[in-house]
Design brief:
The protein is 43% helix and 15% strand. It is built from ten helices and nine strands.
Length: 267
């Protein structure tokens, strides 16, 4: 996949992650195509840092991966006895007490949480394999545009683990409990057509049109007034936890804020 941000000076470029900012549009790129953008704790720390570095002008964030795969999941070196140099091995993690292990996983999860912030809309541009942690990173975003060769799979259960990088909540919300359970428990691949039909992806396009489709979507999002998008996103994010009447009240309150702002009567 070609890099649409290659002419911009990166705000961050380390550990397999590059962040570039072009006014209201930021692009986060996974930059280790030789390893199919395999993920490690260092990469997760870099993703977390990228989120913290976003300037307030950014409204849309595009997440993409260089090469033929978006991300093939965890770096397999993490499963070896020696692990990744400078990082805790799985065995060392397992030996920590409950509080220590919980804190470590919570730190890993930070790389996956900021994509749904209310002040931005995030788009994952996904081609090729998006497996395990790669699937969960795509699920961390608000929207997914996929190439027709995409292959989603949640392989954690097949390895004796569970998906723990924030992917279970959005997966159930998108496809429902029964299908989410079947996808996770079997570890099977989900292709482009099923991704769109089930709600995992917003749209599927030929691979050579993925960048263009993402640019068009980002442009459409940026064309809408920022405050209206922020309020709408908050309304939709909270809808699942509200009753019908509570959602009606939330709509009224949000609209009152928008009307007052438009009339110059806001606080």
């Amino acid at each position: 996949m070609a890099s649409p941000d290659q002419d911009l000076a990166p705000a961050l470029d380390k550990d397999g992650v590059r962040l570039t900012v072009d006014d209201a549009l930021a692009t986060v790129t996974l930059t280790n195509p030789a390893k199919r953008n395999a993920q490690s704790p260092a990469l997760w720390r870099a993703l977390t840092e990228a989120g913290r570095l976003l300037p307030g002008s950014v409204r849309v964030v595009v997440l993409r991966g260089e090469g033929r795969s978006f991300s093939a999941g965890l770096d397999r070196q993490m499963f070896t006895p020696e692990g990744i140099p400078g990082e805790s091995t799985f065995i060392e993690l397992a030996r920590r007490d409950d509080a220590g292990l919980d804190a470590s996983i919570a730190e890993f999860q930070e790389a996956f949480t900021w994509w749904r912030r209310s002040d931005i809309v995030s788009i994952a541009a996904v081609q090729g394999h998006a497996i395990g942690a790669g699937f969960q990173l795509a699920l961390a975003c608000d929207l997914r545009v996929v190439a027709d060769d995409v292959q989603f799979a949640m392989r954690e259960t097949s390895l004796g683990l569970v998906p723990d990088l924030t992917g279970t909540h959005p997966l159930v919300g998108l496809v429902g409990y029964a299908r989410a359970l079947e996808i996770c428990a079997t570890g099977r691949f989900v292709g482009a057509a099923e991704s769109v039909a089930s709600g995992l992806a917003n749209v599927a396009v030929p691979g050579d049109q993925l960048d263009e489709a993402v640019r068009d979507l980002a442009a459409a999002l940026l064309a809408a007034p920022r405050d209206a998008v922020v309020e709408t996103k908050a309304l939709l994010q909270g809808a699942v936890d509200r009753t019908y009447d509570e959602q009606r009240a939330a709509e009224r309150a949000a609209q009152a804020r928008r009307l007052r702002d438009l009339a110059g009567l806001g606080e």
